[in-house]
C-alpha cells in the first residue's frame, strides 16, 4: 500500500485491504447482501470477460432477467455476484442470461471456492490464407464458432490470423485446421497456449533411416509423452512434461544420441509467420507476372495492332473457321482465366457453398460473363461469317489488375505488422550458458538457442550483446540501455542484485545474470502478446463494416442485373439512339459491358480493411511510443474521454516517501527522538515506516559508512541490530498508526485520531506546525511517549516533474482532470493546487474509487482512470478506459485497457491523442471506401454516358477496384508517421 497517509493499513492488515480492493468493483452492499426471506445469493464464474465493457454487458443481461434483485460483476475475479428470487428465477436462468450476453458461466459451489475444470481451455493462433475481404472473415468466424468445443473465435483480415479458444478434450487443432480448409482457405497452427508442446526443426533428416534414428532417440527420453515427425518439412512436434524433462535436455539428447548428425532448433512462430507472409507475396507476384505476360499481347492485339496495316492484315487471316488474331486471344485469355484465375473460382465456390459472398464472387461473375460472351461471339462469327466484337481483353485485364492490387495489398498489410517484427527482433537468438557442476563449480560456457534458457540458468552477457532473459545480476558491473521499455536513452547502471530485462542491450562490462523469467514470461514477450492481442481485436465501429460487407455483394449483383435490364430494355424500345450501341454492334453487348463494369468496380474489401489496418498500425505505433493498447475497443473509447482520474501516490507523485521535517516539542534531543521513533517503526512494513527508518539512520551515521555499496549494506545491517531499541507488544492500528512499548513506556506513532483517542493533548504550537505542513503538501506523523506529546515528523512524496504540465495539457485538449486519493484533505488540496487540478476527492478508500468513477459516468461521460497499485485495480476496471502506469503492479496492468510502459504521465496525453488520430483516420477510410463505391458504381453503370459519351470499360473498372482497397491500406499506413504531441504544442507555448 503506497499511499502517504496513515489511513492505509500497515503490517498484517495488508491482506485484508487487498481483498477489499480486488472485490471493490462490486456494489457497496455486495459484501453484505441482506438475507431477506426467500432471497438466494449465488457466485457465478464468468469466462470471456476482457474489459469493463464486458462486465457492464453481463450486469445489464443479469439485471434484465426477471426475478434478479441485484447483480455485480468483478472483472478481476471473473465472477458475478447475483441476488435473486428463487420463485421467479433459477440457477439455470442466471447461467442462460450470461451465456446469452456472449460469455461462459458456471455456478460456483456454496463454499465459493473455485473448482478447477477437468480440462483447461487452450488458445491457438492459426494462420489463415486466402481471405480477401470482411465477408471471408465472417464466413470463417461463423464456421469456427459452430464447431463443438470451440469457445471463442476471432479472425483478423489484416494479419491473416485467427485466434481460437477451444477445449482440447472436445476438438483437436487438426480438426480446426481441417474445418478451415473445408471452408476453402489454407490453415496452419502457428502457436498454442499449451506450455508442454513445441515444434522443433531438425536438420540432418535426409533419409528414412535418419527418421528411424530420431524415433529411437525420442522414445527413450523420459517425460516425453508423444511426438510426430514430419519428414517432408524436417519438423518434429513433441509433447512433454516440463516437470520431468526440460526442452534443452530434449534438444541436447537428440544431438548427443545422434553423434551430432541431427541438430534440433525451436521454431520461432513469428519467424514462421513472416516466412508464410513472404511465400504468399511471392506466390501472388508469380501469378501477377504470368497474367501480365499473357495479357499484354491480348491488349496489344486488341488496341494497337488494328492501327498497323501489315500486322492487322496478318491477324485477319483465317486458320480454319477462326481468324488468327481472335484464336490467339482465346488461347492466351483461357490460360489467364482458368489457370491464373483458378484461385478466384476456388474461393468463390467455397464462399457460395457456405452461403456467403465476397470479392472473389464479383470477380468471377464479371470475368466469366466477359469470357463466355467473347467465346460465344467468336464461335458465332466463325460459323456465320458475321463477326461481332469480342472482349477477351476485358477478363484478362480485370484478373491482372486485381492480382496487382492484391500484391500491393499484401505488401502494404505486411507493413502494418512491422511493430511486431521489430519487437521480435529485439530478442537475441542465442545465449551463453555458464555450465556448473552440482557443487556450483564453474565448468565452462556453451552457446545455446535463447529459447532453451530455463529459469535458474546462469548466463554470461558480453558487452554489445543483448540480455537473453529477465533476471538479475549475480556478478559484474555494467550499463544497460533499457530504452525499449523505459524510453530513457540514458544507460542504467547495473551491479550485483540489479534486475535486468530480456532484449535490452548490455553496453560496457561483462555481466553474469541468473534467469528468472523466460519465454512467454519475459517483459518483452508480454509486450508482444499485448500488441498481438490488440491487433486481433475488433473495434465496435467495425460492426458497421461487417454488416455492410455481408449484404454488399448481393446488392451489387442486383444493381448489375438492373443496369443490364435498364440499358437493354431502353435500347430494345428505342429510348436512345442506335449510334450509342453501334460500336458494340447491338444493345445486348452494349448493356452487358455496363453490367460487367458494375460488378467489377464494386469493392467490399475497402470497407473490410478500413478499421483493422488502422487499429493494427495504431497499436504498433503505440508500442513504439511506450503505450500498449489492449484492443480496438479501448482505442475507440479513449477518443471520447471527458474525465481523467489520477491516483495521487505513485501516479502524480514519485511514490518514494522521504522525511523532510522532524521537530521535537519536548526537552528530548532530536537524535534521541529519531532513535525512539525509528525503533518503533522498524517492526512495521508500511512505506512511511521505511522512510522514517532511513532518515533516522542517515541522521546518526552519515559519513561514517564505507564507500563500497556491498560493504555499506553489510555495515548497515550490523548497525541496525545494535543501534535500535528493544520493542515490546508492537501492534498496527488500521487507519491510525502503530503503538508499542519501549523501556516499559508506551509510544504512539500515527495521526491525530490515534493521539487524541489515547488522551494525549496536542500543543497549539504543534497543531499550527502540522497544519502548515499539510497545506504545503506534506503528511504529518505525530509521536507520543509515556502519555505525553513529544514531536512530529513531516513526510512528502515529490511530484513527478511532468505532472503539472500534463494536467494543463489535458485541459487544453478539453479533458477534465480529477484527483482521487486516500490522503487527508489539506495534503490532497495542496498537491492538487500544485499540479493545477481543481476537482479533488480526498480520504477515499480503495473500494470507493470505483464509486467516484460511477458517479461521473451517470450522465454518460467517458471516464479514464490512471493508477498504479493493487488498490487502483477496481477503479481501473470500473473506468471506461483504464490506464496503468507500467511500473505498477501486475494486477493493475491486468485490469487496465492501456499500459503506459515508460512510467511517464506524458503518455496519458499520447494515449488519448493516438486514439483520436486513429479514429479520425478510420473515419476517413470509411469515407473513402463509401464514397468510392457510391461514386464509382453509378459511373460504371453509365450514369454519365448520356451526357458525356464516356463509358468505363470493364478492364478499367477492374483497375479502379484493385486500387481502392490498396488506397485504404495506404491511408492507414500514414499513421506510421504519427509523432507524440509535444507539450509545448499542446499548451500552445512558443519556445524562443
TrEMBL record:
The keyword Transmembrane helix applies. The keyword Metal-binding applies. One of its GO terms (cellular component) is membrane. It is found in: Membrane. It comes from the Eukaryota. SUPFAM superfamilies: Calcium ATPase, transduction domain A, Calcium ATPase, transmembrane domain M, HAD-like, HMA, heavy metal-associated domain. One of its GO terms (molecular function) is metal ion binding. The chain crosses the membrane at residues 330-349, 361-383, 389-408, 544-568, 588-610, 926-949, 955-975. Keywords: ATP-binding, Copper, Ion transport, Membrane, Metal-binding, Nucleotide-binding, Repeat, Translocase, Transmembrane, Transmembrane helix, Transport. Signal peptide: none annotated. Belongs to the cation transport ATPase (P-type) (TC 3.A.3) family. Type IB subfamily. This is Protein HEAVY METAL ATPASE 5. It comes from Urochloa decumbens. The lineage of its organism: Eukaryota, Viridiplantae, Streptophyta, Embryophyta, Tracheophyta.
